[in-house]
Amino acid sequence: MKIYTKTGDKGETGLIDGKRISKGDPRIVAYGSVDELNSNIGMAISSLTVKDRDLFLDLINIMTCIQSELFIVGSDLADPRYHVGNQNENKTPRSEENMASALEDAIDKFETELEPITFFILPGGSIEASLLHITRTIARRAEIAATLLSKDQIINPTVLVYLNRLSDFLFVAARLINKRLGIKDVAWRPSEGQTR
């Protein structure tokens, strides 16, 4: 089978239900953002594996699981046949509440390693933490895209919960990476940014 089909050459693509829509449709933008997020998490995993796999193995395992969950989120968004009360009639994998609660458990576990913060932090520190901050902002953008989609079309509301919780997890994960590498969080100091 060839990778290219030429069916999208006029700016349209097919959804799981077979319907053809514009590649600029909010549904495509939403699950495209989820795909971008997944790719960036893959890059972050690769960087942690190269840096010190053993030091970050727990985080790598969770993020690998998140990548699989993002495939579920993407397929959920790619199938417009979600109906409240009959979510699985079409056998499309759907986002479930336990996916978000697992992220909450991971956040709670990792926060026990971290000092509480009483200030805003700048995204940065190590390269690996910076990559996680990038994924966090992509998660927020994916959440925004899914939220905009939900204003006009029915989607599984669990998608929004999951993406919201995922960005929280990625923030904590970025801090955790810096902590394990012995790098302090970079505090935002409003007065420092005013001199060049």
Q: Low-confidence spans: pLDDT under 50, at least 5 residues?
A: none
Strand percentage = 5-15%
Stated plainly, the CATH topology is called: Hypothetical Protein Ta1238, Chain: A
CATH superfamily descriptor: Cobalamin adenosyltransferase-like
Fold topology:
Elements: E1 12-14, E2 20-22, H1 26-52, H2 57-78, H3 97-111, E3 121-122, H4 127-152, H5 157-180, E4 186-187
Describe the model.
The chain has 196 residues and is mostly helical. It has one domain: Cobalamin adenosyltransferase-like (Hypothetical Protein Ta1238, Chain: A), CATH 1.20.1200.10. The strands form two sheets. A two-stranded antiparallel ribbon has the order 1-2. The protein has a two-stranded antiparallel ribbon with strand order 3-4. Strand 1 and strand 2 form a beta hairpin. It is elongated, with a radius of gyration of 19 Å.
Q: Characteristics of this structure?
A:
196 residues, two-stranded antiparallel sheet, 58% helix
The gist of it:
The protein has helices at 26-52, 57-78, 97-111, 127-152, 157-180; strands at residues 12-14, 20-22, 121-122, 186-187. With 196 residues, the chain is mostly helical.
